[in-house]
Recover the amino acids of this structure.
């Protein structure tokens, strides 16, 4: 069945992206096995395509990981898109976890499905309306994982910067009248 579905998608990048999107749709329909199979196959094919475009790459996984983070950063330059991703990506990740933990169509599964879907909509709107470019994972499969890591790091940096500013404000001498 999976091979028949995959055979319906045109070759190349469209096929890889189609498998990723189809896998997410399968996950939303409650079909976890098909969802994971399609997403895994799509990511694998995207990575093979990336390596074919970069035959000079001979580095370690750490080097490859850094390239994925750099690519994700380069494809997320617009401030509004970054903001939408800082909201949307945690919703996607949390929703995906819930889609695996809860049985459809339970209320917790429905909340997870909504979170997953809304998170993706925010990310897609960010790319379509503000970044004006495709999602990073369509060119670099590792960005599918690097993206959430990048977003969570940015959230942590923002929080640390806020605490540092608060500490500086508390330590600043006050003017006495």
């Amino acid at each position: 069945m999976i091979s028949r579905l995959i055979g319906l998608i045109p070759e190349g990048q469209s096929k890889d992206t189609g498998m990723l999107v189809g896998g997410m749709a399968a996950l939303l329909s409650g079909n976890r096995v098909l969802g994971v199979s399609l997403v895994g196959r799509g990511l694998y094919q995207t990575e093979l395509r990336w390596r074919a475009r970069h035959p000079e790459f001979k580095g370690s996984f750490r080097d490859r990981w850094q390239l994925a983070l750099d690519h994700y950063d380069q494809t997320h330059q617009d401030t509004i898109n970054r903001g939408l991703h800082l909201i949307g990506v945690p919703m996607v990740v949390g929703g995906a976890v819930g889609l695996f933990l809860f049985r459809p169509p339970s209320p917790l599964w429905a909340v997870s499905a909504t979170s997953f879907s809304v998170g993706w909509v925010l990310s897609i709107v960010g790319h379509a309306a503000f970044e004006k470019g495709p999602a990073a994972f369509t060119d670099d499969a590792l960005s599918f994982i690097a993206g959430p890591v990048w977003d969570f790091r940015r959230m942590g940096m923002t929080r640390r910067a806020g605490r540092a500013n608060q500490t500086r404000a508390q330590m600043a001498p006050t003017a006495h009248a």
Q: What stands out?
A: The first helix runs from residue 2 to 7. Residues 61-168 form one domain. The chain has two domains: 1-58, 61-168. Residues 88 and 122 are 5 Å apart (CA to CA).
